[in-house]
Amino acid sequence: MPHIHTQPNQHDASVTMFIICMDGNQPQLLMHMHRKLGKLMPPGGHVELDETPWAAVSHELQEETGYRLTELDIMQPKLRMKSARDITVHPQPFASNTHAVTPEHFHTDLDYLFIARSKPSAPPAEGESTDFRWMSAADVAALDETQTYPNIQDFCAYVFEKLLPSDVWETVPATSYDTTDTTAKFTSKEEL
């Protein structure tokens, strides 16, 4: 999807999915060759104007990797809000960041960590990258700046070194969270 905000210094909302699959005892992270940037990156994309960030995760996963939420678990902090009245609670990203796409355009990104039980059951959508690589922590660390961005390496190192061995994060089915665009019940000032 093209950028929504095209004026100088505007921000688009985006999501990035870090997908780990266990290969023996060694976790492997899914990277793909971004078709426009020509660098290895985790899959991700824009949050469209008519969707929640979690709905964007669902559609970008399918488009870019072929994965469905039914095939994945998501890492979540053990201490987290799981429900609230009259709203839809979404999964917590493990990080949120803002980065420059160009000197005058920015993405504010939510980063999610998934655990795959198998390879995706479907191919990516037509026109998406098909150059996928399952990479160990050492593989990602060995990439140079012509192959990936240093900040991607920083996030990958954090995933491998801090989140995967953490005892304060746990896996839950990715389908535990609703992707539909539910509207919270409106509370008028008189009802407050």
TrEMBL record:
Transmembrane segments: none annotated. Signal peptide: none annotated. InterPro entries: NUDIX_hydrolase-like_dom_sf, NUDIX_hydrolase_dom. PROSITE patterns: NUDIX. Residues 10-161 form the Nudix hydrolase domain. This is NUDIX domain-containing protein. It comes from Candidatus Southlakia epibionticum.
